[in-house]
Amino acid sequence: MNNLVGREYEIEKLNRMLIPGQSDFLAVYGRRRVGKTFLIRQHLKENIVFDFTGTKSGKTEEQLINFYDEFVKRSKQKKQKQPPQSWQEAFSWLFIYLSKLPKRKQKHVVFIDEMPWADTPKSGFISSLEFFWNQHISKMDNILLIACGSATSWMKKNLINARGGLHNRVTQRIKLLPFNLHEADAFLKSLGAKLTPYQVIELYMVMGGIPFYLNEIIKGKSATQLIDEICFSPKGLLQTEYAQLYHSLFKNAANHIRIAETLATKPHGMTRNDIASKTKISEASLSRALEELVDCDFISFYDPLINKKKEAIYKLTDLYSLFYLKFIKSNKNGGKGTWQLLSNKSSFTTWSGYAYENICMIHINQIKKALGISGIYSTTSSWLFKGNDAMPGAQIDMLIDRADQAINLCEAKFTKENFAITKSYAAQLRMKKSVFSQASKTKKTIFTTLLTTFPAIKNQYY
Question: How many CB atoms lie within 10 A of CB 118?
Answer without folding.
Answer: 25
